[in-house]
Amino acid sequence: MTEFVKMTRYSRCKRYSGALIKCPECQHIGRVYHLNWCAITCQNCREMINKYDWLVEKGKHSKRLGDS
Ligand SMILES: [Zn+2]
Fold first, then answer.
1. Is this prediction's pTM over 0.90?
2. CA 4 / ligand 1 centre spacing (Å)
3. CA 26 – CA 28 distance, rounded (Å)
4. For a pLDDT cut of 90, what percent of the chain falls above it?
5. What separation in Å is there between the alpha carbon of 47 and the centre of ligand 1?
């Protein structure tokens, strides 16, 4: 079971497998391969969602403080 946390500026996605993100509006789960965007449109509900409103899968991809 994938746990999701709010996107932060420390969020990372793995270069090859990407990261799962969940729409805060409709809970639709999608995959992104980089976080080099400010906002993207949910493919399910068509809402424009700001980057930091998305939820991102918790764990290995999230926060490595001091790692830029
Ligand atoms: Zn949505």
1. no
2. 15
3. 5
4. 57
5. 6
